[in-house]
Amino acid sequence: MSFVHSLCVYCGSSGRGAAGHRRAAQRLGGELARRRIRLVYGGGMVGLMGLVADAALKEGGTVVGVIPRHLDQQEIGHRGLTELVVCDSMHARKQRMFELADAFAVLPGGYGTLDEAFEIITWRQLTLHDKPVFLVNVEGYWDPLVRLLNHVIEQNYAHPETASLYRVVEGVDGLFQAIEAEPEPQLPARAKWM
Predict the structure, then answer these.
(1) In 3D, which of 72, 6, 17 has the Cα closest to residue 42?
(2) What dotted CATH number matches 7-181?
(3) Three-state SS for 138?
(4) Where are the domains of the chain?
């Protein structure tokens, strides 16, 4: 039995991505609801964000959106959620999403998704948490990022052990297999690569 009862999903607000990315977002939302795992996400009703939320809601899932006030209109804050938290800033949004989640899954997305993913991985590197972070590699979307992260390590700007801060999983099936296999987080002593 997994300790993950609440999954934070970072994903794009754009609806212009590949059809396979949209299908993955819908499948993930539906599976979260069926498995009774609460979805925590960015609160919008557009793009992959809207798809993952709507799919979870359609299956009777619990969905908490967190959106900053200045994006509530731009990203069209989703008013049909179990709960919509409107906060004052992007920093407050990321902090609240972190507090609500047991683990993090990163679907395809743009600069905002990358910002969220890098921040949560960096917080883990700094031993501020030990919650698992999964890059959900849909149709090879994260392959270039993984090559870049490996390059950073090869160029000695990150310790080789930092590759363990996140896990790359293949699609939605791979995500749920990884969640089931993940040990309960335990905040480690200060990491030796610090």
Answers:
(1) 72
(2) 3.40.50.450
(3) coil
(4) 7-181
The answer to whether 99 touches 8, Cβ cutoff 8 Å, is no
**Nearest C-alpha neighbor of 29 from the set 179, 185, 172:** 172
Q: E strands, 20-166, where?
A: 38-41, 63-68, 83-87, 103-106, 133-137
Q: How confident is the model over 175-186, as pLDDT tens digits?
A: 999 999 998 887
Q: How far apart are CA 100 and CA 152, in angstroms?
A: 31
Distances (CA, A) of 31 to 7, 57, 103, 137, 188: 12, 11, 15, 17, 31
Token pair in block for residue 57: 């809601």
| Amino acid at site 54 | D
Q: Give the span between the Cα atoms of 141 and 168, in whole angstroms.
A: 11
Spatial distance between the Cα atoms of 34 and 13, rounded to a whole number of angstroms: 24
DSSP state of 35: T
Quick: pLDDT tens for 146-162: 999 999 999 999 999 99
Helix (H, G, I), strand (E, B) or coil at 22: helix
Q: What percent of the chain has pLDDT over 70?
A: 95
Amino acid (1-letter code) at residue 152:
V
Question: Is 138 within 8 Å of 132 (Cβ atoms)?
Answer: no
Find all residues with CB under 8 Å of 38, minimum gap 6, and list them. Answer: 5, 6, 7, 32, 61, 62, 63, 64, 100
